[in-house]
Amino acid sequence: MNISLFMFLLFIAITLGITYWASKRSAGASAYFAASRQIKGWQNGIAVAGDYMSAASFLGIAGIIAFQGYDGFLFSVGWLVAYLTVLLVIAEPLRNAGKYTMADVLAYRLKPRPVRAMASLSTVTVSTFYMIAQMVGAGALVKLLLGGYVNYNQAVIGVGILMIVYVVFGGMLATTWVQIVKAVLLMAGTILLSILVMAHFHFSFASFFNAISQVTYHDAKGQQVVKDFLQPGLRYKPPYGPLDLISLGLALIFGTAGLPHILVRFYTVPDAKTARNSVVWAMVLIGSFYIMTTFLGFGAATIVGPDFIKGHGGTNMSAPLLAQALAGNVFFAFISAIAFATILAVVAGLTISATTSFSHDFWTNVIHKGVERRPGEEVLVARISAFVVGAVAIAIAIVLGPTANVAFLVALAFAVAASANLPVIVLSIFWRRFNTAGAVGGLAVGLLASIGLILVSPSLMAIDPPTVTGAARHLIQAKAWFPLENPGILSIPLGFVGAILGTLLSHEPSSQEKFNELLVRSNTGLGAERATAR
Amino acid sequence: MGNAARNVEIAQPKQYEASKSTWDNIAASQQFRDLMATKKTFIVPAFIFFVVYYFALPVLVGYAPQFMSTKVIGQVNLAYLFALSQFFVAWIIAGLYVRAANNFDRLSRDILEKAENTKGGN
Fold first, then answer.
1. Cα A29 to Cα B7: distance, rounded to the nearest angstrom
2. Is the CB of A283 less than 8 angstroms away from the CB of B94?
3. Which H, E and C letters describe A232-250, residue by residue?
4. Does residue B6 lie in a domain region?
């Protein structure tokens, strides 16, 4: 049997075992949605890392560095620094004042139904966009790695079914442990790969960086060029490059703290102090990983070379090809299985955050005004919606096909999180005057501005030469109206303006009545949700 | 655990509830104001510092690429070293925050105890 296939099946077997174990411990809402709030700080830290470091990080960033050098490494930096916003501003108040979703905090002193409806829409939008990007990537990747065994559609369906099984049967507990296993595998694979890269250079940083400073490849015109890959500017070129870089930074720094699948993780621990410790654990892992993208990305550029990667699957194959070049097929299979594990853990996290928000925010609190009609209804609805969300994501990924340009969906998810979610969470915790119209306005403007600006950005709007066909063609064949790929620099201020204007133009004394209660709860943890027996 | 787990919803302790005046009193108390002031003294400068330090990277790399390409150690340039420093600065700020937060915990523990005593638990 093919060694890659064997490792994929082994990982699937382990995660299904976890799901079976978790399924017997997932009765009741607190157990299903929040793993009974009994996850330990270090465990949650590893799970946050596993939830966060997607295939876009492992394969994507390694690939961008392998082709565009230093500018790719800039992604790595933002991906870690963003956790300071989570640590300093969001994690503890959220854990103290909420129950299962970010909307819990918003609904505390605002009118619950409009606020939850909008927050749920925003959550489901972010999670679905992110999920589709992962699914299309997963399909293309699995097809490449297991070429001959499965095609794109089968791969997408397989990934989709697995994520549905984890979430429907194992809830948050299974999702957490799948993420922990994945994070440990990812760290192990990355450390091993980094050591092998350095061994290739006889553990001399001088010769490693010498090689990076003269990467030889053929450019688009077929000319052989030698470039210093440590030099900035290979990706972000004037006139708009620098601005795009700043806009990307804004979306990362303010978006990470608004990503629903990250936020729900803080409800799985017993209290705010543990939530804080878990962010620190996550930062240690995430930071170490992203520093090591130096070895993954520049290693692929120097040892494998952009020309070879281009001919063997393209940018996303940089890390697996590097593994193959350094240690042969077994290691290639191991790294491929890690990439597969990475995708599964992330899509499971996205699925549970979307279904929690739909069931807890929309079904129970918007439609049924906060009353659970039958015991266990909320969990039942979540299980059904996990199934629906998974099926929809599978269908969209199949319709889009393996060549679809989906990288912009990740940018879009971060932009919505930064422009819609973050402003209203922050204002509801810190601004006494804030009210329902402000929250709805901020969420709506942030959501629409992000989607609108992405639609008219170079990601979706460009004039393709006739040689580009099918799904790879840009949606709108015209010159882009908005010059940046990342809308954050404009959409984040717009989200704040929407929230502030909505507040100032309306009058709602009741929103201020409970401000002191929210202030005390979120800052002291008085009356916070406790861990439950499992 | 099997069957016992099914009753967790019933066994769950009730949330702390209090009247509006109780919350207002806690919010107005000297202890709570101290807590908020202590938090602000750390969080606001730390937040501003990390945002400025972080955005210095894309700004410098984007608008002064020649300067940032200056080689410092062998082939390693300023741009790479500055990017690498971001990781360590982020870790240091996180470490300092955890230290400062122990103080927040101590202050809020007093508030919690007082609140739960006057209410007689929940």
1. 11
2. yes
3. CCCCCCCCCHHHHHHHHHH
4. no
Q: How many structural domains is chain B composed of? A: 1
Pairing of strands B71-73, A215-218: unpaired
Q: Which residues contact A493 (CB under 8 A, 6 or more apart)?
A: none
Question: Considering the domain boundaries, does residue A313 fall inside one?
Answer: yes
- How far apart CA A103 and CA A91 sit, in angstroms, is 14
pLDDT value at residue B15: 66
In a domain, A41, yes or no: yes
Instruction: Provide CB contacts within 8 A for A212, sequence distance 6+.
Output: A69, A228, A229, A230, A298, A301, A302, B75
Do B75 and A209 lie within an 8 Å CB cutoff? yes
Residue A384's Cβ-count burial label (10 Å; 0-12, 13-18, 19+) is: middle
Domain membership of residue A496 (yes or no) is no
Q: Is residue B5 part of a domain?
A: no
In the 3-class helix/strand/coil scheme, how is A263-294 assigned residue by residue?
A: HHHHHHCCCHHHHHHHHHHHHHHHHHHHHHHH
- For A422-467, the pLDDT digits (tens) are 999 999 999 999 999 999 999 999 999 999 999 998 888 888 888 8
B66 contacts chain A (CB < 8 A): no
Q: Is B110 exposed, middle or buried (0-12, 13-18, 19+ CB in 10 A)?
A: middle
Return d(Cα B66, Cα B64) in angstroms, integer. 6
Cβ separation B54–A24 shorter than 8 A: no
Full-prediction pTM beyond 0.90?
A: yes
Task: For helices A152-200 and A318-356, give the axis angle rounded to 10 degrees.
Answer: 130
A481-494: per-residue pLDDT in tens? 899 989 999 999 99
- Contact list in B for residue A276 (CB cut-off 8 A) is 98, 101
Across the strands, what pairs with A215? A227
- Note whether residue A451 is domain-resident: no
- Give me A438's structure tokens: 């402000």
Contact across the interface for B12 and A30, Cβ inside 8 Å = yes
The answer as to whether B29 is a domain residue is yes
What distances in angstroms separate CA A43 from CA A49, A57, A216, A482, A502, one per listed residue?
A: 10, 21, 43, 42, 40
Does some domain include residue B82?
A: yes
Single-letter code of the amino acid located at A156: V
Provide the number of structural domains found in chain A.
1
pLDDT tens-digit series, residues A9-23? 999 999 999 999 999
Query: B32 is in which domain, residue-wise?
Result: 19-119
